[in-house]
Amino acid sequence: MAIVLPGRRPALRFRRSGVLERRLRKGGHPLDAQLNVVPMVDMMTMLVIFLLQQFSATGEVLYLQKDIRLPDARHGAAIEAAPVVAISPSQLFLGPEKLGEVPALLAEEGLAIPALEEKLLEERRRWEVVHRNDPDRDRHWTGAVNVQADVKVPFKLVKRVMWSCGRAGYHDVNFATVEEAERSAAAR
């Protein structure tokens, strides 16, 4: 076998047909490619507009689930970031995690909701681990929890949630409400 230089060797039939003739020529292709940036600029503009619409200047800390209708309030204060207990007409949540069905919780005896207590204690332990080596000692654990309760939820269940929060060490219970002015503006 003869010694040949390494490189491309098209099949004999392609060499004879001339199909690859332009590709095999050295130096025939420009190395710079034209890039159309108009679609990229359009996409970036759309992303910026989307992000600006989603941005909240008020610093909203609650995500309201679609099946929860909050009660109206005339006076209130802005709530701070804390674990969120959401009580819809059918389910109980701590953040995104479902803890139980409302009819089953109403049928139970006693004040405590063990699943809620356990998850809140877990949340407190997580907070303590995260802030163990925090150089800013002024920020201590406040024991705050935000409750989103639907208007139709019986007070018995709200009382049980408050009791369970207190047993887990969350004594600062804040209730999420909607200002009447906001609800009337949204209804128009």
UniProtKB/TrEMBL annotation:
InterPro entries: ExbD (IPR003400). It is found in: Cell membrane. The keyword Membrane applies. Its main location: membrane. The keyword Transmembrane helix applies. Keywords: Cell membrane, Membrane, Protein transport, Transmembrane, Transmembrane helix, Transport. This is Biopolymer transporter ExbD. It comes from Anaeromyxobacter paludicola.
